[in-house]
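Researcher: Next entry in the queue.
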Amino acid sequence: ARCVCGKPTVVHTAPRLSDGTPFPTTYYLTHRGATSAVSTLEASGLMAELQQRLADEPELAAAYQKAHEAFIADRDKTGAELGLDVPEIAGISAGGMPTRVKCLHALIGHSLAAGPGVNPIGDIALELCSWSPNRCVCESF
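Model: Structure for this entry, 141 residues:
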């Protein structure tokens, strides 16, 4: 994903680092304005609120499960394209998926890279974020 000015907002990483270490965080939020705003969201207690919503809203929990599966499918596809087999992280996604809300940076990164409707928790957090992918603040940082 990119800012409206064209600078990277989210990078799509390989499932294994150059030193061989497995790396499950496929979508990595890199934009300074975005990461700062998301850190503020995390400090606000939003993760606990979203965690409670997963417990209270079965439809949201089911959609979050699908986001987890989509994340793993994307990572597996990238691994296959790069000839990287990473069994150490099989079934593991990021951001606490599919049952926890652990890292809004990873979840918003997934939402930005995959597009709206794929990761509902990332979408909700992005909507509540003071940063927007539709407004460039790159020169502010």
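Model: The helical segments are 32-43, 46-56, 58-81, 104-114, 120-128.
Researcher: Noted, moving on.
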